[in-house]
C-alpha cells in the first residue's frame, strides 16, 4: 500500500531511511557471508567512513500460512519483541504520526557491568500482503529525553524486509548501531553476531504463536497502538470519524476474539474484525474470547 503522506518533523529523514533499507535488502551485492547459525545466514558489510559494520541475517520461515505483513507485524510490535528478543527491556511509542509511522523509545538489557542502552528513534513501515518493509533509525526529539541509568545509543540504520517466496516468507534483518560509551570488545563482537539472529527469532515466534491483530483498512487517526502478548490484548487509541478493519490469527486466538470499543460498533466475521461508526476519541481493545 502507498506510504501515508506526513509533514511531521522527521518525515523526510524517515523516508530516506526506508529507501536505504529497501536498497540494502534488495540483493547481496557488497555483503560478505560469515556463517550460518540456527538456520540464519549471517552477513556483514563495511560502511565507508565508519568503523561500525552493517550486519544482516536472512532466514526463510518455511510455512505458507502467513503473509509478509503478518510476519513484519511480529517483527515490529514491542509486545512481540518482548518475547522473541531476550535483550529487550521495555519500549514506548511517544507519538504516532500516521498508522505506519511513529516516534519511539526503547531500552535494552546488557550484562553487568555494561550500562543498559536506550534509543530514541522513528519507525516507518511500508506494508503489503506479499512484501513488507520496516525502517528504524535514531532521531533527537524533545519527547524522548535521556534516561538516567542508560547510555543513549545511536541506531544508525536498522530494518526488516519480509517477502513471500515459494516455500514461505523470507525474513531479512539489517542493522548498524553505535552502542556508545565504554564497551568491552568481546561484548561488542557478541552483540554484532547476535543481532542478525533476530530474523530466526521472529520466525520462531510466528510459528509458535501466530501474529497479533493486523490492520487491513482504516479511515481513522491513530494515537496509540500496543499489544500485550501475555494477556493477548491489542489496544488502539483512535480519533476522527470512520472505521477500522483488522485480521486476527487463529493460532494466537484459537477460541476467537472479543471486541470492546468506546464508540461505534464491532462485528467479527471469520477472522476479520470491523469496527464501524467510530466518532471522536475512541479506545478499541481486541482480546481473547
UniProtKB/TrEMBL annotation:
Boundaries of every START domain copy: 30-191
Taxonomy, superkingdom: Eukaryota
Gene Ontology CC entries for this record: cytoplasm
Gene Ontology molecular-function annotations: lipid binding
Alphabetical list of Pfam families matching this protein: START (PF01852)
CDD domains listed in its UniProt record: START
Protein name, as recorded: Bet v1-like protein
Organism: Hesseltinella vesiculosa
Amino acid at each position: 500500500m502507498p506510504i501515508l503522506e506526513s509533514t511531521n518533523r522527521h518525515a523526510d529523514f524517515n523516508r530516506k531511511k526506508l529507501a536505504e533499507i529497501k536498497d540494502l535488502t534488495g540483493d547481496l551485492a557488497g555483503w560478505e557471508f560469515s556463517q550460518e547459525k540456527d538456520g540464519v545466514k549471517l552477513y556483514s558489510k563495511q560502511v565507508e567512513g565508519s568503523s561500525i559494520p552493517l550486519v544482516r541475517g536472512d532466514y526463510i520461515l518455511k510455512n505458507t500460512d502467513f503473509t509478509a505483513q503478518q510476519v513484519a507485524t511480529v517483527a515490529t510490535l514491542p509486545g512481540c519483541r518482548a518475547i522473541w528478543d531476550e535483550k529487550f527491556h521495555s519500549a514506548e511509542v511517544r507519538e504516532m504520526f500516521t498508522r505506519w509511522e511513529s516516534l519511539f523509545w526503547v531500552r535494552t538489557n546488557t550484562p553487568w557491568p555494561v550500562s543498559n542502552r536506550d534509543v530514541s528513534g522513528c519507525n516507518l513501515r511500508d506494508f503489503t500482503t506479499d512484501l513488507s518493509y520496516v525502517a528504524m533509525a535514531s532521531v533527537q526529539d524533545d519527547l524522548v529525553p535521556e534516561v538516567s541509568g542508560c547510555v543513549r545509543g545511536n541506531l544508525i540504520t536498522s530494518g526488516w524486509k519480509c517477502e513471500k517466496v515459494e516455500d514461505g516468507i523470507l525474513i531479512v534483518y539489517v542493522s548498524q548501531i553505535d552502542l556508545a560509551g565504554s564497551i568491552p570488545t568481546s561484548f561488542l563482537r557478541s552483540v554484532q553476531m547476535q543481532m542478525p539472529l533476530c530474523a530466526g527469532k521472529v520466525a520462531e515466534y510466528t510459528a509458535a504463536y501466530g501474529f497479533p491483530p493486523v490492520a487491513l483498512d482504516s479511515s481513522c487517526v491513530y494515537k496509540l497502538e500496543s499489544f500485550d502478548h501475555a494477556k493477548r490484548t491489542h489496544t488502539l487509541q483512535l480519533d476522527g470519524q470512520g472505521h477500522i478493519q483488522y485480521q486476527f490469527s487463529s493460532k494466537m486466538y484459537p477460541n476467537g476474539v472479543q471486541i470492546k470499543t468506546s464508540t461505534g460498533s464491532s462485528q467479527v466475521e471469520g477472522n476479520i474484525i470491523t469496527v464501524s461508526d467510530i466518532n471522536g476519541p475512541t479506545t478499541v481493545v481486541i482480546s481473547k474470547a
